[in-house]
Amino acid sequence: EVCEDGExxxxxxxxxxxxxxxxxxEINRLPVTEIGEEAFSQTxxxxxxxxxxxxIRRIGAGAFKFNPxxxxxxxxxxxxxxxxxxxxxxxxxxxxxxxxxxxVVNGILIDGTTCESP
Length: 118
Known about the structure:
Layout: E1 2-4, E2 9-11, E3 20-22, E4 26-27, E5 30-35, E6 49-51, E7 58-59, E8 72-74, E9 81-82, H1 91-99, E10 103-105, E11 108-111
């Protein structure tokens, strides 16, 4: 399900059956600019990988949470806003935390739950 806001498309939910998903750059000739809150969480599908287009600007709160198998996600530099817990309970976030407890993407702290204060 999608929502048109005049400037672009926000993806609200997903009802497909793909495990390796590529989000299109356009739907109905409008750029896909946002992944809405919880759009890909609790869908019944456990994604392995997701590729986002360069048109995405915002990833909403909990957008991909509760996808424990999601280990690969291609986040373009165009993303400038991440909602809270966008990647909660994903293998991708776990892998990022193993590399650096303060997970930073595109210069934005997206998870600091495993950071230690000095």
